[in-house]
Amino acid sequence: MGKIYYEKNALILSAIGAVTGIANGLFGSGGGIIAVPMLKKSGFETKKAHACSLAVTLPLSAVSAVLYYDTVPWNQTLLYIPFGLAGAAIGVTVMKKISPKWLSRIFGILLIAAGVRSLLQ
What we know:
Layout: H1 3-27, H2 31-41, H3 46-67, H4 74-97, H5 100-120
Helix pairs in contact: 1-2, 1-3, 2-3
């Protein structure tokens, strides 16, 4: 498990980061939809994959917001932030209490619902 394992793992995680960044730039914080399954596939436990995805999408979202600065309706966007922060705290609390099995199921349902909604629009 020495240097070769580390280099292979670093390459995989770098590729996941690049794909997640592209998705985040295209779809907003939708990078997590790509990051979570890819992180799980690369060996992360379910809850660690979700937590890592959240940690990664924060700086990706910040960069995207800066690059989209001129198109963001900041006066309206700023209204979302306090409630988004409260929702994030609630989500983390719930994630810590539910089983990985249910977390995966809920995430899967969300992905299916988002996919169906996108196809029907």
